[in-house]
């Protein structure tokens, strides 16, 4: 039943110096549906594949607006992500109330990181099985993509893809990395959607129902409606 | 000797009051015992309540020691010019009306983008400085390369002041906040004791609001040079020191520019007390003395 004797709690190291619980949590992220983010200084695009619980249910949303400039995509345990999204939104509101500022993506990412990291060194509870891709912009930095992982790690990325079969999306993004650095929003959206379709279940075409799209451009996070997504899909 | 009520404060307790001595007090406490309604006849033989200080009740009562200021600074002025913002205060902290501490720097540099000047209670300002230091340290630890700009500090102080006011324990200060906002434009604002706030091209906190601002209104224009701004500031300080008994003739002007904050050395302005009307100041104000 158990993989080994060192994975029962957060406090026990394996002799190889690994924390199995954290690694399991990272596996949970790989089980989640795919999220792709790519862009440059001026614009960033988030695209995600949605899933449904059963044929009878509706699709589960994966992109969440945090404030007017920042949005987040999640992959992994959706209930864990709900807690983190709530945390982000609350912090964002607090920042706006206390300092009159829209919270910057880097500040929000470091907050998530702290919250995730704590759960990797306390015996009570478990690490969150969710990966976040935070996109947004701030005056100082321009557009940013920040990726978090259950260990509390935060990386700033030009492009990234997390979730199931995300390797093929990453390969696609790597090929277009130079192109992305000078691309317009439309171009970035096309690359993101192509990368996403690479990760889609074999030979299935992307539908506007099954994928979600959001952009950050000129300091504004905009979530695209299914109709708009369809327009972009038709252009592919 | 007839025992008398010694304390009237509700939190300290009613004091020693035997029944019959103070009919008003009897009426107040009639029927308030645990056993239910007690008539005058029953109470007649009962001894008065002992004088006690109810510690629990005192803890519940709001603290009042900070509700009057003790050591205070008076006006603080702020004025934008083409290359930045000026702040001006005198260096006096008064104990009541006594000019007690004469070399107090009433301006604080918050960071490179922001400085504040205060009026009101000196110790409360020290507390606010602690809060701002904490904030700066937090930001430094965050290490994301950003510092809070003047507009954020202004908003933060507003929240702090309003929050304390809502606890019925206000910080006895008002502030002038000067510096740069997120867009890199000069910012000048004031925060009042209860969280009232506004930003303008020139502001004044304290008594100077009545004296300096008319001067600012008359002479301010958006393209003031630093020299012109300092001149206007000095004439405003002169007007203040001539009329405000809690002000002394030792001033500091601080400036916030793109290069950062610099707080100038203390200086005095020439004063003139020989005006004719000073000899008989109430000559034209009937009813004065």
Q: Regarding quaternary structure, how should these chains be classified?
A: heterodimer
* Spatial gap, N to C terminus of chain A: 47 Å
Corresponding CATH architecture of chain A: 4-Layer Sandwich
Instruction: Name the shape of chain A in a single word.
Output: globular
How many beta-strand runs of chain B? 13
Give the helices and strands of chain A as they follow along the chain.
HEEEEEEHHEEEEHHHEEH
> Which CATH class of chain A?
Alpha Beta
Tell me about the biggest sheet of chain B? 8 strands, antiparallel
Per the CATH scheme, the topology name of chain A is Glutamine Phosphoribosylpyrophosphate, subunit 1, domain 1
What is the number of domains of chain A? 1
CATH level 3 topology of the largest domain in chain B = Glutamine Phosphoribosylpyrophosphate, subunit 1, domain 1
| Low-confidence blocks of residues of chain B | 1-17, 44-53
Approximately how much beta-strand content do the residues of chain B carry? 15-25%
Number of helices of chain A: 7
Rg for CA atoms of chain B: 27 Å
Mean pLDDT of chain B: 84
CATH H-level homologous superfamily name of chain A: Aminohydrolase, N-terminal nucleophile (Ntn) domain
User: Gap between N and C termini of chain B, in Å?
Assistant: 49 Å
Number of beta-strand segments of chain A:
12
Organism (chain A): Ostreococcus tauri
Protein name (chain A): Proteasome subunit alpha type
Keywords (chain A): Cytoplasm, Nucleus, Proteasome
Subcellular location (chain A): Cytoplasm; Nucleus
């Amino acid at each position: 039943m158990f993989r080994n004797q060192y994975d029962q709690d957060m406090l026990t190291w394996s002799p190889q110096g690994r924390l199995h619980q954290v690694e399991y949590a990272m596996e949970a992220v790989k089980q989640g549906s795919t999220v792709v983010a790519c862009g440059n200084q001026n614009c960033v695009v988030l695209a995600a594949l949605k899933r449904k619980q059963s044929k009878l249910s509706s699709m589960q949303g994966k992109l969440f607006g945090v404030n007017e400039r920042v949005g987040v995509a999640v992959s992994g345990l959706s209930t864990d992500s709900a807690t983190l999204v709530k945390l982000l939104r609350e912090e964002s509101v607090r920042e706006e109330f206390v300092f009159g500022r829209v919270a910057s993506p880097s500040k929000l990412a470091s907050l998530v990181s702290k919250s995730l990291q704590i759960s990797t060194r306390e015996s009570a509870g478990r690490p969150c099985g969710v990966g976040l891709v935070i996109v947004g912009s701030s005056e100082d930095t321009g557009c940013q993509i920040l990726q978090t992982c259950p260990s509390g790690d935060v990386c700033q990325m030009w492009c990234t893809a997390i979730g199931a079969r995300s390797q093929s999306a990453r390969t696609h993004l790597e090929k277009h990395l130079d192109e992305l650095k000078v691309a317009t929003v439309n171009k970035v959206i096309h690359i993101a959607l192509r990368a996403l379709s690479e990760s889609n279940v074999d030979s299935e075409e992307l539908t506007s129902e099954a994928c979600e799209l959001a952009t950050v451009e000129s300091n504004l996070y905009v979530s695209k409606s299914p109709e708009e997504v369809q327009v972009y899909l038709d252009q592919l | 000797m007839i025992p008398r009520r010694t304390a009237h404060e509700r939190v300290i307790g009613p004091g020693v009051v035997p029944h019959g001595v103070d009919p008003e007090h009897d009426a107040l406490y009639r029927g308030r015992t645990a056993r239910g309604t007690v008539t005058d006849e029953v109470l007649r033989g009962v001894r008065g309540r002992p004088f006690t200080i109810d510690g629990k009740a005192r803890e519940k009562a709001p603290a009042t020691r900070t509700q009057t200021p003790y050591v205070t600074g008076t006006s603080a002025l702020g004025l934008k010019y083409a290359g930045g913002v000026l702040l001006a205060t005198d260096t006096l902290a008064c104990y009541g009306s006594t000019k007690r501490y004469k070399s107090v720097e009433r301006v604080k540099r918050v960071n490179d983008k922001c400085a504040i000047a205060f009026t009101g209670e000196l110790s409360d300002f020290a507390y606010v400085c602690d809060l701002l230091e904490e904030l700066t340290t937090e930001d430094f630890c965050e290490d994301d390369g950003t510092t809070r700009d003047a507009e954020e500090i202004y908003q933060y102080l507003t929240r702090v002041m309003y929050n304390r006011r809502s606890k019925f324990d206000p910080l006895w200060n008002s502030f002038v906040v000067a510096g740069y906002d997120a867009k890199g434009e000069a910012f000048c604002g004031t925060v009042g004791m209860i969280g009232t706030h506004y930003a303008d091209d020139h502001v004044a906190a304290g008594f100077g609001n009545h004296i300096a601002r008319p001067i600012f209104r008359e002479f301010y224009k958006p393209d003031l040079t630093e020299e012109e701004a300092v001149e206007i500031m000095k004439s405003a300080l002169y007007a203040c020191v001539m009329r405000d008994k809690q002000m002394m003739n030792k001033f500091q002007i601080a400036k916030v520019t793109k290069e950062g904050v610099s707080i100038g050395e203390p200086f005095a302005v020439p004063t003139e007390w020989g005006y004719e009307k000073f000899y008989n100041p109430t000559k034209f104000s009937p009813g004065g003395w």
